[in-house]
Design brief:
The chain has 498 residues and is an all-alpha fold. The chain is built from 24 helices and no strands. It has helices spanning 5-25, 29-49, 52-68, 70-79, 84-101, 106-112, 116-134, 145-148, 174-182, 184-203, 210-230, 237-253, 256-263, 275-308, 312-325, 330-345, 350-370, 375-392, 396-411, 416-433, 436-452, 457-469, 473-486, 491-497. α7 (116-134) runs parallel beside α9, α11 (210-230) packs antiparallel against α12 and α18 (375-392) packs antiparallel against α19 (396-411). The radius of gyration is 29 Å and the shape is elongated.
Amino acid sequence: TLGNSNYNGAYLGISFPFLIYLALVAPRRWLSALILATAGFACMALWQTSTRGGMLALVAGVAVMAIGLREELASALKRTALSKGTLLLVISALLLASAVVGAFTPDSVSRISRTESIAARLGWWSSSVELIADHPWFGTGFNTFYASVLPYGDQPLPQDRNLREDFPDEPHNIFLSRAAGSGVPALVAYLRLVGSTLFFALRRLDHRPRRDRLRTVAFTAVLVAYLTQGFFSIDVIGVALMGWTAIAALAALSDPLLVDQEAAGQRPGGWIRNRKDLVAATLAASILLMGLGVPVVVADAQARKAHEAQGGNRSAAFLRQAIRIHPLEPEYRFKAGKQLLLNAMANDDPGAAHVQYRQAVEAYRNGLDLQPEMVHEMVNLTIAYTNWAVNNDEPRYFHEADRWFDAASELDPFDYEIAYRRSENLRIWARTTGNPDIRERQIAQLQRSISLYRDQPKAWVRLSAAHRALGHDEKADAILREYFDAIPDDNRIRRIIS
C-alpha cells in the first residue's frame, strides 16, 4: 500500500494528467463534467496530504498537457463549454466538499509553507554528493544509504537512535539515490533511458492518430510529473510503478514499426487481434491480482490497529494477527519484535519478561530470515539479546548478541552507531560478569565509534568511565579534556570535568 501521505500525494499529482486525457476523450458532456469534478476532488485530496512534491508533480504534468495539447484544449473549451447548470453543479460540489473536509484551513496552509523539511533535504543532498564523490563507480550498494551516509556532511545526527527509525533511508532524490547506491554510471544509464524515451515520443508525436497523440502526451506528462516529484522524494512501489509504466507506454506508442504500419494504413500485428480477448484477459488478471491482494490489505489493517493501540500487549496481539494473515511480510515481524522488546523491558515480572524477550528474539530472527542483511534490525536483535541476558542472568545471550554484532559490522563496517551499540552491549556484559577483558573490548569499540564520528558526547563519557572502571583515572580525565579541547562549547563535558 502507499502507507504514507507523501506517497499518496505524489501518486495523485503524477496521475492527474490521466484525468485530463479522460475528460478530453469522453463521448458525453456530462461524463466530461463528472471527470472534471473528480479532478477537483483529486486536487483537494492532494492539498490535504500537504505534499509539496506531489503539488509540483501536478503543476508539471498539467504544464506538459497544456503545451502538448494546446490546440485540442482550446477547441475543447470552445466546443464543449459546459452548460451553466452543469458547471454550477461541479463548482457547488467542490465547495461543499471543501467545507466538509476543511481543506483550506490556516493549519493546512502552515503545513504547506513549512521550511524544516527543505533544510533537511538540502543537508541530505549535500551529504549524498560527498558520499558519491567517494564511491563514484559502483556506489555503496543497494539500500545502504541510511548507514553509509552517516560520516558525511555537516547535518546534526541523532546521538542515541536505539531502534533507528527516524533517520531517512534514502536521500529524498531519486537521481542522487541511484548514484549513491549503484554509482554514477548507473545514473547516466537511467538518464539516457529517460531522455531517449522522451525524445522518441516527442519526435513521433505529429505522426500519430488523434487518440494515440493524446495518449502519448498524457504518458509524457505522467513521466515528467514522476521525475519532478522524484527530485524531492524516494521511490516506493506505488509511485515508482507510475514512472516505469509511463516509460513502457511511451516505448510502445513510439515504436517505429507501429508508426510505419499505421502511416501505411495497415493494421498493427500482435498476439491479441480481438478486443474481447484483451478485455477477458485483463479482467481475469485483475481478479487474480485482487484476490492475491486481499490478505495484504487485511494484514495492513491489523498493523494499523497495532499502531493506533499505542503499544502494550494489544499492539503485539494485532501484529501477531497481521503475521498470521500475511506471513511473508518481514516488516510485521520487525515491528512485533520491537513491541515485544518494549513490553519486556517494561515488565516487572522476570518470568513474563523472559517469555516476551524470547518472542521478540524469534520475531526479529524470523524477519531476518525473510529479509536478510537488514543491519538496523540486526542491531535491534542484539538489544533484545542483551536485555534478555540481564533479565535471566544468562551470559550466553551476551554471546548471541556479540555474534549478531559481528554480522552487522561485516555488512556495514563504517557505521559509528553499530560500534557504539556494541560498546553498550559490552559495557553491560562487563558490569554483569566483572570481566576486565570484556571492558577492554568495550574501550576498543568506543574508540572505533569515535574515530568514525567524533561529535558523540555520550561515547566520550562512556570511554572515560570505562577507563575509570579499570582504575585508569588519569586516562579517564585525559579523555574528557581531549573532547573538551576539540569541542569546547559542550556544557555537559564542562560540568563533568569541573
